[in-house]
């Protein structure tokens, strides 16, 4: 009896329902975290200023109140959300070595992190549909993508996100976690968190798989199908010049899809098949996954969209002229 009681006491000391997780910065480079924070700060500044600028330009310019730019503003808002959701923990580690985070805070961070990821995936599908409608059915484009329909699409993305995310995160509450709660990244990531659970996580894994199927598993084929139909339609155009012009309108979106899905799939593969990989690989992949889309999307769309580029130049000139007067 005494041995059984002792085992129970040891088990209760090793596990907890209210754990404190330890976040990880850049493994092996803890002594130079302050210096590493400089490029991180630059990337965060580019992401925040670039996406804020695109949102400001689209909201203030009446000429950009079109479906394509509405979807672009949604993409920028999702990128801003992704950036802000992890910036505090990442910079907290690099500047102040603040590595502790409790389960409730972790769940809140995952809600916004995974939520904005799901929303961005949905926006990329909507943008693919926008390109399909503009190229394959241009005469009905204005009647297909009305303002009310765009609002409905945006609400559908938010509803899908909440319905999928909330059960996934609520299933974390009953779990017991081992005392050595060291996470692989500078933020809470669901597959990383459930690895540390000592209790049965089959329900969590099934729910995570269902979420993956209903987001990436649905969104990726929809984007691919849209581009198959676009390519089929474009090759029916006789003039090579017209083909080039049409494909040029899709370049920005293809770039946005690539910078979103490639790092996400790479991180998933690292978690699934690369547990023996160096910790620094996990850490770098995790940071690339979150920072690459918010940093590159404003640059891609600014380079390929003349209207946005012109207005951004005008805004920058105005800001610079005000500074010189001050």
From TrEMBL:
Residues 50-301 form the G-protein coupled receptors family 1 profile domain. Keywords: Cell membrane, G-protein coupled receptor, Membrane, Olfaction, Receptor, Sensory transduction, Transducer, Transmembrane, Transmembrane helix. Its main location: membrane. The chain crosses the membrane at residues 32-58, 70-95, 107-129, 150-172, 212-234, 246-264, 284-303. The keyword Transmembrane applies. PANTHER family: OLFACTORY RECEPTOR 51F1, OLFACTORY RECEPTOR 56B1-RELATED. This is Olfactory receptor. It comes from Neovison vison.
